[in-house]
Amino acid sequence: MTSLANIKGQAVASRLLENSLQQGPPPLLILHGPEGTGRFLAALAYIQHSLCETGTACGVCVPCKKILQNMHPDLILFPAERVSIGNPDHPEPFSIRWLIRKRLVYQPHEARYRFVVFPRADLLLTEAESALLKTLEDAPEHTRFLMLTHRLDQLSPTIRSRAVTVPFYGLSSPAMRSILPDTVSNDDLTILGGSLDQLELLHSDLTNDMATRIEAALRHPVSLLDLESWLISLEKNSPGTGTTYSASLSYPELLDFFGLLLLMKTESHKRFKQIAPLIFEFKGTLHRKVAGIQVFLVARLFHQLHTTLFSR
Question: What span, in angstroms and rounded, lies between the C-alpha atoms of 250 and 285?
Fold first, then answer.
């Protein structure tokens, strides 16, 4: 059963969502904060509460069962990938023109409201975002929108101004402990960095390989260069191209994980105070909507690391 009570470590978000349910869903909700902190689970719980016959997300009524099986006709869940405006004449499914012309013009099938969810609202292409904005300015009375993004500033100010925003924060160690099995170590919690998004990587071949390469790179400049080349090569193995490491993480997410692991591996280094700001700057710019920026950021980080680690 999905319930807002099951959202661990997000007291502020849970309280805001519960208050919103009491007042009635607003035209647009934006759930923002780090990946792996419960945003998607909270969005589904919010919708389940709204569409449940008893308003409690009971899990046993027909609407609840349909939501849990992703079969409710009044829940339109976009894929977590780039969203285009769509072909003018024959818009593709899950494009904005398809949504407007094929779904929003009709009344909900079963419920009072239809919910439209964008799990990665930051991946709305510019034209799609502009077209959607026109719909949000005069939102259909029977439709409610939920947008999820890891950074609120990646959505246009005009969209943000029309939304009720709900913040999610990195999970505390006690919250993580209440969710994860006892086999997860303190080092594992450090790697996760307050997020469950990369839990699958904890004991994977990728983590072991990456850790070994980082340890070698901290000792010798040639190994540092090898690590840089290896990281750049992973871009070609991102989801959709047959990666041997992970079928679900994008290249920016893999680099984000690398940043966490590098931070942990350099914590005891004598130049950690100089290294840490470089890593934080790297992680803070990974998800910008600029073509090819990740490879540039990798090259810049490794140039800075070389200077910091091996200069006299």
Answer: 15
Give rounded-to-5 percent helix, strand, coil for the chain. Answer: 50, 10, 40
The residue-averaged pLDDT of 8-30 equals 93
Read off the tokens for 105. 């013009």
Please check whether residue 289 lies inside any domain of the structure. Answer: yes
Structure token pair of residue 163: 């939304």
Q: pLDDT tens digits, residue range 129-160?
A: 999 998 998 888 999 999 999 889 989 999 99
Question: What's the chain's average pLDDT?
Answer: 89
Residue-wise pLDDT for 243-266, tens only, equals 445 546 778 888 988 998 999 899
2 pLDDT band, cuts 50/70/90, is low
Q: Does residue 30 contact residue 163 with C-beta atoms inside 8 Å?
A: yes
104 and 125 housed in the same domain: yes
What is the DSSP track for 215-268?
HHHTT-HHHHHHHHHHHHHGGGGSTTS--SS-SS--HHHHHHHHHHHHHHHTTT
Task: Count how many domains the chain has.
Answer: 2
Q: What is the DSSP letter of 83?
A: B
How far is it, in rounded angstroms, from Cα 102 to Cα 84?
15
Q: 102 with 58, same domain? A: yes
CA-CA distance, 228 to 16, in Å (whole number)?
43
Residue after which a domain boundary falls, among 143, 167, 191: 167
Name the token pair of 103: 């779904």
Residue 163 and residue 185 in one domain: no
**Which domain does 31 fall in, by range?**
4-167
CA 78 to chain centre: 14
Edge-to-edge order in the sheet of strand 114-118: 75-77, 114-118, 143-149, 28-32, 164-167
One-letter identity of residue 304: Q
- In this structure, the answer to whether residues 20 and 52 fall within a common structural domain is yes
SS3 (DSSP) at 192: helix
pTM of the model: 0.77
Last residue of a domain, one of 117, 139, 167: 167
